[in-house]
Amino acid sequence: MPPETASSKSLEPLPLHELLSHILLPRFSQAAPLAQWIAIAGTLQDLNQRLERRPLLDFFNYSLRGIGQVIFVNNPISGLLILIALFLQSSWVGVLSAVGVLASTLTAVALRLDRTSLRNGIFGYNGILVGAAIATFGASGNGLWNGAWLLAAALCAALTTLLLNTVGTWFVSQFKFPPLTLPFVAATLLFLAIALWLPQPFFTLAPSSSVTSHPPLDWLHLAKTLPIGFGQVFLMDRFWSGLLVLLAVALCTPLGALVGLGGGLLGMVAGMVLGAATDTIYAGLWSYNAVLTAIAISGVFYAPSLRSFVVGGGAALLAAVLGGALSAGFARLQLPALTLSFCLVTIGVFLVLQRSLPSLVPVALHAIASPEEHRQRFVVSKRIMTQFRQQLASAMTGTPNNYLFAAAPDAIKKDLEYMFNAIDTDFSNTISAVELAEHLRQVKRSISDEELDILFASLDIDHNGEIEFAEFGELILRQRRVMTNYHDFLTYFIPIDANGDDAISIEEMNVAIASVGERPFSKDEITFLQARIGNQPLSWNRFIEMLLVT
Fold first, then answer.
1. Burial state string for 52-63 with b = 16 or more CB within 10 A and e = fewer than 16
2. Which of 107, 232, 249, 293 is the most buried (most CB within 10 A)?
3. Phi, psi (5° rounding) for residue 430?
4. How high is the pLDDT of residue 14?
5. What is the Cα–Cα distance from 530 to 534, expressed in whole angstroms?
6. What kind and span of H or E run contains 468?
7. What is the structure's pLDDT at 41?
């Protein structure tokens, strides 16, 4: 639901929220600073722009981002920590993992694939997993350091980029959802099947171990298993490697790390309830799919909220159970199930939620960032929509609704008074249309007569032909509230326009308000809203105008 295009604006009056900016003082309309951790994350995002003209450093930057993207962290420092963890696991795993991410990323560069996706690591994360998997399953095989293993890792990693650019593009267009690690699963299983089933002298895989021991559970050992679950996302089973991965996630998104720990814990519980071999639980094999699923549902593809936490927890349990079943089935073929259960459950939950719980609004794919940023967008939208519901109730009963002005601190009211007095040149404590027009002329902000009429009518809430201080202050504060958080609010609302017609239907509006905990609109409210917009389609700009003047 993007704002209307520039070409359409050239034929129509400016929307009210832009007209109001003509009378705002710069010091009053500045956006409030984001939380400190978001500023740090933003600085790291700005690194992409700063390195754009330094190709070699830029290449390493987005290669490291690709490592972090495996576990949904778009941060080169986190990627570096994970790479160190892979080398802690073993030098062999570290080298082939590096080969994997470099090969898949270089393939994307050679094919000149989408630059933004490339520089945010989207073409690297499947590649590094392929390298780690080939290194792990060949760890006791023949001639580890011969060129055949390195070539296999490079070719299979490059294949993931080709799959992502072909099948993955189709997948996104059909389901509005990324294919996650399915390219890694496909490329790795293809290599392992060739190595196992075709006669060839190059690759001898490590023998698979059948774990059947069921000693009593050691609670201290179980506690150490939680970070190992993070490590197993990259096929690492050592405590310190897993702890480093957990630290890498927490550095970028503390909320994501917390959600992942919860998912890993639920995966362990699933294994214990189902009577899984104790060693498989200790090794994190029941946790890693649950870790990924919990982070994906509870913070990456949906804004963190109580509802997404509940759904994410249920999905994590399901991923662990399905992972156990798939592992048992694939073991008969001497193949690993890898992250297949994470992919199937996460994609399945997304498709089911579209129909069964549409008020759990997904995050727009192009706006995927950290759970904290998604949470901020949700909180901003909840605050604005809850206030709008109060404004609507007051407007329907004809009672004054100067909520923001009444609650504003004295310092803010003094700023408003300064602005008001600058326009009220006859000191009548009201602003006339003539005074407003003269003020705009003096500050060299030219608008048409039609736009002046729109601006004055919006400020004159009681329609008595004069603008009182409270009316003026309320509308300016509403404009400031919306525009300070405009990007967050717009980004949150993009997926709500489900049919992509650039208009908000009543059904879509009900989804929006339900997503922030408000009840659906009543018949009287719907009738009132339709009358306010003259039964015209509710465009984005009309929606913003309703937030300001209702």
1. eeeeeebbbbbb
2. 293
3. -140, 160
4. 65
5. 6
6. strand 467-468
7. 46
Helices 167-175 and 147-165 sit at what angle, rounded to 10 degrees?
Answer: 30
The C-alpha atoms of residue 14 and residue 451 are separated, in whole angstroms, by 7
- Contacts by residues 524-530 (CB-CB < 8 Å, ≥ 24 positions apart): 524/396, 525/392, 525/396, 528/392, 528/395, 528/396, 529/392
Nearest to 490 by CA among 473, 474, 504, 510: 504
Of 196, 209, 195, which Cα lies nearest the Cα of 237? Answer: 209
CA angle 305, 308, 313 (to 5 degrees): 125
Phi and psi, residue 187, nearest 5°: -65, -40
Predicted pLDDT of residue 36: 42
Measured torsion, CA atoms of residues 60, 63, 64, 70, in degrees rounded to the nearest 10: 180
Least Cα distance to 436 among 450, 453, 411 occurs for 453
SS3 532: helix
* Phi, psi dihedrals of residue 103, rounded to the nearest 5°: -65, -45
Buried b (16+ CB within 10 A) or exposed e, 170-183: ebeeeeebbbbbbb
Q: In whole angstroms, what is the distance from residue 207 CA to residue 93 CA?
A: 17
Q: Among all chains, which residue has been given the structure tokens 């949904």?
A: 72
- Torsion on CA atoms 410, 416, 420, 421, rounded to nearest 10: 50
H or E segment to which residue 328 belongs: helix 306-331
Collect all residues with Cβ–Cβ distance below 8 Å to 91 and sequence separation of at least 6: none
Cβ–Cβ contacts within 10 Å for residue 335, how many? 18
Whose tokens are 């500023």? That residue is 39
Distance CA 500, CA 534 (A): 22
- Please give the structure tokens belonging to residue 449: 């007569």
Q: Compute the distance between CA of residue 132 and CA of residue 121 in angstroms, rounded to an integer.
A: 17
The helix/strand/coil state of 362 is strand
How many whole angstroms separate alpha carbon 360 and alpha carbon 374?
A: 13
Q: Do residues 241 and 177 touch, judged by C-beta distance below 8 A?
A: no
Lookup: tokens for 441: 């002329």
pLDDT value at residue 122: 92
Which residue numbers in the chain have pLDDT < 50?
1-11, 25-43
The pTM is what?
0.85
pLDDT in tens, 157-193: 999 999 999 999 999 989 889 999 999 999 999 999 9
Q: How far is CA 334 from CA 199, 337, 507, in A?
A: 16, 10, 50
- Location of structure tokens 């890694």: 184
CA 325 to chain centre: 30
Q: Give φ, ψ of 373 to 5 degrees.
A: -65, -40
Q: Which helix (H) or strand (E) holds 467?
A: strand 467-468
Which residues, at least 6 apart from 39, have a Cβ–Cβ distance to it below 8 Å?
33
